[in-house]
Amino acid sequence: MKVLLIGAGGREHALGWKLALSPRVTELHSLPGNPGLAELGPVIEGIEPTDSAAVADVARFGGFDLVVVGPEAPLAAGVVDALSRLGIPVFGPTAAAARLESSKSHAKDVMSAAGVPHAESATFTDPKSAWSQIEQSDGPYVVKADGLAAGKGVLVTDDRGEARRWVERWIGVGPVVVEEHLDGPEVSVIAVCTATGAQPLAPARDYKRRDNGDLGPNTGGMGAYSPVDLPSGLVEQVMTGVITPVLDEMEHRGLGFRGFLYAGLVLTTAGFRVLELNVRLGDPEAEVILPRLASDLVDVMEGETPRWSAMTAVDVVLTAHGYPDSPMTGAVIEGVDAPGDDVHVFHAGTSLSEGRLVVAGGRVLNVVGLGEDLARARARAYKTAGRIHWPGVHYRTDIATT
Ligand code: AMP
Ligand code: GLY
Q1: pTM above 0.90, yes or no
Q2: What is the CATH number of the domain that holds 195?
Q3: Containing domain of residue 257, as a range?
Q4: What's the pLDDT at 95?
Q5: How many CA atoms lie less than 13 Å away from 343 in the CB half-sphere?
Q6: Does residue 400 form part of some domain?
Q7: Which pLDDT belongs to residue 150?
């Protein structure tokens, strides 16, 4: 089977690596890909992943048997719709179904209708009403851009002035959501949703803040590990309490959902609450989930129950100086070769310049260690991370310790 993978990040490198292991996949092309994916097959340059018509043309004229979409932006732009109109098999939700992620207020509406416990919130288009909502609470304050912001539109703060400034910063872009603050450990549960039903993937935990001790700004994700030690039965409860009712509600609205459905949860003392729904694999969750998947990913995307390796995976994300606000690109990356057994280096913001690997984005590399337990997986990831260098490289040193 000839497979086209859409996307260019660490999640897509992990997806491409796993797809390439499938005996059913004879060719893997990626669009636009990255230097890591280029080692697995041809990369298609010069086409925007969000240009649905152009992506559909590539798939048609290239004779692809399956298209897998990694990130949210092409899903929200209707790539799945364009491919489906041509009868090309594709794994991912339609644009209408992808609004679960591209509009937080829509997601809340679906969750309320489906009886899914989630963070209470109000959506504002006028800054004064948002401010008065903020003034009614003692904090911490949670303020979010309503639309897609690559994980950077969220502020959680004790500082009321900062919350007000965040409203000002994002209200020009679109509506702003002011949300109740939830307290407790977080976990990501992702389900594979096919025509035959939904199957959970192994749970993962990601680290959103840039700096050690969960300090600094929110980012797209600084690290992750899987599996997560959870209260017994929790994943099943998330399937019956979140995934199934959301899928049923979507079906009821004529928005049948196919693809990866991601529930970001907080485990509060009163039970779990959904913080966000995403319509794709998490990044960096995918980088720790896929290396542990013992099944063929193509079979799983067709509805087979996933089987798991007993190993634990830990991902440490290496970022550029200045991430997330203004990452400094162009630095030459040293030390990526030969990571050794039980370590994967998945590329995200890299490119090749005159034959050298250089920094080309905020999140640059994912170093994933596998081990018999969390401590060994962690040690392997950090050993390799410590050998990789460029001026200004930054990573957290406390991934999978707290
Ligand atoms: P989101 O992109 O909406 O998942 O938010 C990013 C991160 O901000 C989450 O993983 C949480 O760590 C934090 N966060 C978001 N919303 C809340 C909330 N209502 N209460 C507490 N923390 C939150
Ligand atoms: N790691 C969080 C996300 O992918 O949204």
Answers
A1: yes
A2: 3.30.470.20
A3: 183-301
A4: 97
A5: 22
A6: no
A7: 61
